[in-house]
């Protein structure tokens, strides 16, 4: 089944939103395959956001994502990459629809609470960057037949 990498950023952790965010993905019907609270190193931050290296906000982005603990997760389910991006909402919370995570909980693009992989390729790259194979668990949720 398809997997994606989701991360509650330092602002989401400090604002006590880990539980709310986990709950949304759980209630949606996705399966939690791995999770950990961690402090991102500068090296990992620069690698993770490598595609934005030339952007003017890159330094600010790396400083922000390393400014406190993050809650890193792997979620699994049908079309989970694309659906998660809808659940998260637009990059700029001012444009994110109400009902989306950024639409409901964030105000500025620099502090937008949560990260989600933007493609299947990014998901694979980011999962491997943040998790070892032995940190992921393969199991079936009891309600699977009521979701699919
Ligand atoms: P991620 O899930 O975090 O990757 O967000 P995204 O895929 O919706 O957006 P994108 O990958 O284009 O940008 C990565 C992150 O850079 C965003 O989530 C923002 O936190 C940050 N970012 C993007 N544009 C700006 C900006 O203009 N200023 C600042 N300070 N941060 C920005
Ligand atoms: Mg992105």
Give a quick precis of the structure.
Belongs to the NDK family. This protein has 148 residues and is of the alpha+beta class.
Structure description:
- The structure is a single chain.
- The protein starts with a strand and ends with a helix.
- The chain is globular and about 45 Å long.
- The chain has helices at 10-14, 18-28, 42-48, 58-65, 80-88, 101-105, 120-130, 144-147, and strands spanning 3-8, 31-38, 70-76, 114-116.
- The protein is of the alpha+beta class and 148 residues long.
- It contains 8 helices and 4 strands.
- The mean pLDDT is 97.
- Bound molecules: guanosine-5'-triphosphate (GTP) and magnesium ion.
- It holds the Pfam family NDK.
- Its EC number is 2.7.4.6.
- InterPro entries: NDK-like_dom, NDK-like_dom_sf, Nucleoside_diP_kinase, Nucleoside_diP_kinase_AS.
- Its main location: cytoplasm.
- Belongs to the NDK family.
Topology:
Blueprint: E1 3-8, H1 10-14, H2 18-28, E2 31-38, H3 42-48, H4 58-65, E3 70-76, H5 80-88, H6 101-105, E4 114-116, H7 120-130, H8 144-147
Antiparallel strand pairs: 1-3, 1-4, 2-3
Residues 52, 57, 60-61, 91, 109-110, 112, 115-116, 118 line the site of guanosine-5'-triphosphate.
Low-confidence stretches: none
DSSP summary: helix tally:
8
SS content category: alpha+beta
CA-based gyration radius: 15 Å
Structure keywords:
single chain; 148 residues; alpha+beta; four-stranded antiparallel beta sheet; 8 helices; 4 strands; 16% strand; binds guanosine-5'-triphosphate; binds magnesium ion
